[in-house]
Design brief:
This protein is an all-alpha fold. The protein has two domains: 93 residues, Rna Polymerase Sigma Factor, Chain: A, CATH 1.10.1740; 81 residues, Orthogonal Bundle (Arc Repressor Mutant, subunit A). The protein is built from eight helices and no strands. Helix 1 packs antiparallel against helix 2, helix 2 crosses helix 3 and helix 5 packs across helix 8. This is RNA polymerase sigma factor, sigma-70 family.
Length: 174
């Protein structure tokens, strides 16, 4: 955790809002990337981030441990993404991967850019539950325990989802 965010005593009154706004401003670009990597739509990612910001601002006084601000805000952001994802637009947007056809060498190019595009497509085609675990673990660097807190899932469920998501990625990527 960043040194600047560590607080010895909980801020009170306007200091809570200032701390929240400072942290949000510093990490806004990271939050938007997380929302985008779940929703794959820039406008929806911005909308979700704004909704999460408003929700967090509304409940900032309820935050008990100010040193765990990131986990608390990611939890709000992920929940807002889940709500957006449940809309019909996202249920029809995901293209199923044909699991009966293994990938061939012709499907993969030797360039790094093509590999990133293919990996992005594979991650996009994961279920929302698996995709969010992959994003939080490998793109945001959260520990399994922190992911468990963010997603309100038991640690065993997080481990299981991560295992199956990685297996699915390996199946199609390697």
């Amino acid at each position: 955790m960043e040194e600047s965010l560590m607080v010895k005593e909980p801020p009170v009154g306007k200091n809570i809002k200032k701390m929240f706004e400072k942290n949000f401003t510093e990490k806004k670009h990271v939050y938007i990337k997380v929302a985008y990597s779940i929703l794959y739509d820039e406008e929806d990612a911005k909308d979700v981030l704004q909704e999460a910001y408003c929700e967090a601002l509304k409940h900032i006084k309820d935050l008990r441990d100010y040193n765990s601000f990131d986990i608390w805000f990611y939890k709000i952001l992920i929940n807002k993404c889940k709500q957006m994802y449940k809309k019909a637009k996202y249920r029809t947007k995901q293209l199923p991967i044909d699991e009966s056809t293994p990938p061939t060498d012709a499907m993969f190019s030797k360039t790094r850019i093509d590999e990133k595009i293919i990996l992005k497509d594979i991650i996009f085609n994961l279920s929302n539950e698996h995709r969010e675990i992959i994003i939080l673990k490998y793109f945001q660097g959260f520990s399994l325990k922190e992911i468990s807190e963010i997603t309100d899932l038991p640690l065993g469920t997080v481990k299981s989802r991560l295992f199956y998501a990685v297996e699915k990625i390996r199946k199609y990527y390697l």
